[in-house]
Amino acid sequence: MISSGEPSVAKDRLREDVLARRRARSTAQREAAAEAVVATLLRGLQGVRTLAAFVPDPTEPGTGRLPDACTELGARVLLPVVPPVGRTLDWAEFTGELEPGRFGLLHPVGPRLGPTAIAAADAVVVPALAVDRAGIRLGRGGGYYDRALVRARPDAVLVAVVFDDERVDELPREVHDRPVRAVVTPSGGWEALAPDGR
Questions:
Q1: What's the pLDDT tens digit per position in 142-185?
Q2: What is the reported pTM?
Q3: Residue 147, phi then psi, degrees to nearest 5
Q4: Cα separation of 70 and 50, whole Å?
Q5: CA distance 4 to 12
Q6: In a 3-state reduction of DSSP, which class is residue 15?
Q7: Angle 16-162-129 (CA atoms, 0-180°, nearest 5)?
Q8: 105 CB contacts (<8 Å, ≥6 apart)?
Q9: Rounded CA gap, 23 and 171, in Å?
Q10: SS3 for 77?
Q11: What is the largest CA-CA distance in the chain?
Q12: Torsion angle in degrees (nearest 10) through CA of 86, 134, 152, 61
């Protein structure tokens, strides 16, 4: 799935394609995907004490289910807060209540814990538009998670969540890309990824 040209240009083209496919999915497809993804995550994240997750938008896998389901793990759940200005994610503990923030994205109500709070997480569930066999993820292009994952613990399990057709062989890679260690898809379940792509 890799495109020719500069990685950033190739990524922009891929984003457009993936986002168009996501918008075309039916509500029933999204709901079924959410149930499957959440069930897999709950099995794969057993024993996690602190989990950093995210609130999926209506087109993302896990929409309507992810944060609430994470509380079933009995773990402390941190969710990102997009700041009013800048591109460095803040974090807050999820206590069941969400409110709209920047770009209309939902985030937790409550005290902000700062950008370094992600370092407390044993596992980080990361949004993505696609993931390749080496764990390289295609994000939305804002760089929020590229900046956030630098602060994650080196031993934290980074797991991306995508639809089945977004699990690809190869993506354009840039120096700041931090590979995820696992990917979860609705039909494929939890797949561990090796850093070298094998």
A1: 888 989 999 999 999 999 999 999 999 999 888 888 899 999 99
A2: 0.91
A3: -70, -40
A4: 10
A5: 12
A6: helix
A7: 25
A8: 55, 57, 82
A9: 21
A10: strand
A11: 46
A12: 70
